Amino acid sequence: MGWTVRDIPRLDERTAVVTGANSGLGYVTARELARRGARVALACRDRGRGEAALERLLAEAPGARAEVRVLDLADLASVRAFADTLPFDRLDLLVNNAGLMAIPFSRTADGFETQVGVNHLGHFALTGLLLERLLAAPAARVVTVSSLAHLLSDVDPHDPASGVRYNPWTAYARSKSANLLFTHELARRTVEHRLVAAAAHPGYSATELQGKGPRLAGNRVAERGAHLLNRLVASSPELGAAPTLYAATAPGVRPDSFTGPRVLGVRGTPGPSARARRTRDDATSARLWETSERLTGVRYDFPAR
Description:
By secondary structure, the chain is an alpha/beta fold. The protein contains 11 helices and 8 strands. It has helices at residues 24-35, 47-60, 76-85, 114-129, 131-136, 168-189, 209-216, 220-232, 237-240, 242-249, 282-296; strands at 15-19, 39-44, 65-70, 93-96, 140-145, 195-200, 258-263, 267-272. An 8-stranded mixed β-sheet has the order 3-2-1-4-5-6-7-8, sandwiched between helices. A hairpin with a 3-residue loop joins β7 (258-263) and β8. α4 (114-129) packs parallel to α6.
C-alpha cells in the first residue's frame, strides 16, 4: 500500500497558503493541512464562497487554525494586496492550486489571456511577492498544481499569454506547461536555499473545472456530459488532492519533482509522473521566467548565500 493522507506528519507551528481553497482539490488540501496543525490561509477569489468553505472546514476539523483571504489571480492588484496583508512573518508552504480549464477566450484585468494569466502569471507573481517569507522558513516548499494536459502543447516563452489563435484546450495545456517550467526554474534558482519547488497533478478528479468551461460557453450538453463523466470515471477530490499533499508534506520530496497518481497517471496513490522533456529545458524556463517578470512587474530577489 502506498502513501495516503494518513501519512501526513504533524504540522504544528507551520504556516500555509492554498489558492483556490474554497472547493475541490484546494479545499481538501487546506483541510488536511489544517487538520495536521498548520495555520492555513484559504486564498479565495470570492469571500462569500471562502467563508462557506471555512465554516465547512471547521466543522470537519474542529480546532483547526484557518482563515479566509481574498485573492483574485486574474488581477495583479489583488495579488499584491493579498501579499501585502498576509499576516505571516514566514511562510512554510505555498500551494499554487487555483486554476481554470478550457474556458472561452477572455482577458485578465491586466490584459493577459485568462488561462495563462491565472494559472501561471498570477501564481508567478504571488510566489515572487511571498518569496522573502518563504525563504525565512527553515524548509519551505512551493507546490504548483499542473496537469498531464501539459503534454498536449508547449508554451511560447517570449509571448505566453497573447491569446493569438485561441483554442481553449491548447491554452490550458500551455498554462500547465508554464507551471512545470516555472517549477523547474524556481528549483534551479533556489538550489542554494532551503526551499523545495515541486509540482503535482491530480490525474482525473471530479472538481468544478470540468463543467466550468462548457457552462461559460453556454454549452449545456457538454456541461452535462462533463458531470456524467465525473460520476462514472473520475476519482474523488480526496484522492485527487493526495499527490499535492504528498509533494507538500512527504519527506524526501525532491526539487523539480512531478507527482501524480501511480495508475496510468489517473488513479492510485502518489508517485512519480510522466513529464514532457521540454519542461526541464533550462533555456526555455529561463526565457519564460524573464518574460513573466516583465509582464507581471514582479522580480524575484534572492539574497546572496
